[in-house]
Predict the structure.
Amino acid sequence: MKEIIIDCDNTFGVEGCDIDDGLAIIYSIGTGRCELLGVTTTFGNNTLEVVTPNTYAFIKRIGMGHIPVFPGHASDARQNKAASFLAETVRRYPGRVSVLGIGSLTNLYHAWLLDPDFFENVDQLAFMGGITEPLIIMGKRLNELNFSCGSAASYNVLTKGKSITIATGNTCLDVLFTKKRFGLLARSGSPFLRRLYSQGEYWFAREHVYFGHDGIYKWDVFAAGSLLCPEFFTERHVNISPDPESMKTGILHGKGTPRPVVLPVVKDAEKFQEHVYECYARFAQLHDGSF
């Protein structure tokens, strides 16, 4: 059982914003393989002013109100409650706590400013972000978001952090979660799963309009899976070389000093997709909140 903190820019349910952070939280708990010590909020999908209250409400809606939520800060480590929680928790349990970072990495950078031993005390760091080549979906080129959003913080974390696994924008494209499969939730006997479908369907509709395909990429779920259920992935050990300039666009291969990380590659896209839905169902059985 892994002890984890999820650092996220959750916008599930916010008009025009992605649902993958919320799905990653539900998935992580549904694996039955983690103790979620807390959720910290950062920016990326939207501002902290939107992300933080949305995350408080989301955690309560899914019936997990006992899990503490700590707000991040965009610029000041001393005012960053998320960073304080990260630093204090990892210091209290050295070598035991892993962090799933699925938004801007600013809170982790601030945690290091508060405690220079922060990265030494973390067990594993698993991130969603970065690109190794142009990110193209259905002929459309996308900008990288998470690492380029707060690029100075990303550079610090990626050069000073230990035991790093990165689900890049490129590797996440290996698994398209289809609308057809998601639609089965609407016919589920579980009230929670039916609500999950009704409240998440808008993002499938948006993706169909924008890209013309019948599915979504659950970027953050991919990262959570690589941390909690590594049997679905092949560990690709590579050297990345970020520098301050490359981080402005999220490019992992810059002109910096090479350092080793793991870039996970999913073994079987269909099996992983079914595994994710099994975890949603397990969550619904154990925590059928008022969602």
In short: The chain has one domain: 2-286. The longest strand covers residues 34-41. The CA atoms of residues 12 and 274 lie 21 Å apart.
